[in-house]
Q: What sequence folds into this?
């Protein structure tokens, strides 16, 4: 398990990322109903791509794909999106002791 800050997914969480000017954008595809933007990211631990797919009419994010340096993909598709709702911060807490080796986590922090 890698910290998000060491994966291409960190780009999705970067509020300062400007897709129009970023040198991380490697490809843009425009279709009648969607826009696909591919970004490449290299960190100290890994490299990979993040592909964002937006609805062309409203520019809403519809899906993303993370492809790691081993060419493995993780695809997330968004549907039935509700906006304006308050969510508990507890929904985003992960008990890493349940999903990872604690010694490996300590080594990554060093």
A:
């Amino acid at each position: 398990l890698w910290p998000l800050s060491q994966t291409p997914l960190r780009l999705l969480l970067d509020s300062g990322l400007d897709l129009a000017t970023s040198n991380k954008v490697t490809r843009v595809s425009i279709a009648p109903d969607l826009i696909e933007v591919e970004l490449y990211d290299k960190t100290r631990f890994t490299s990979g791509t993040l592909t964002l797919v937006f609805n062309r009419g409203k520019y809403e994010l519809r899906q993303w794909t993370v492809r790691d340096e081993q060419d493995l993909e993780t695809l997330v598709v968004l549907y039935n999106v509700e906006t304006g709702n308050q969510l508990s911060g507890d929904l985003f807490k992960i008990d890493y002791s349940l999903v990872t080796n604690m010694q490996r986590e300590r080594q990554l922090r060093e």
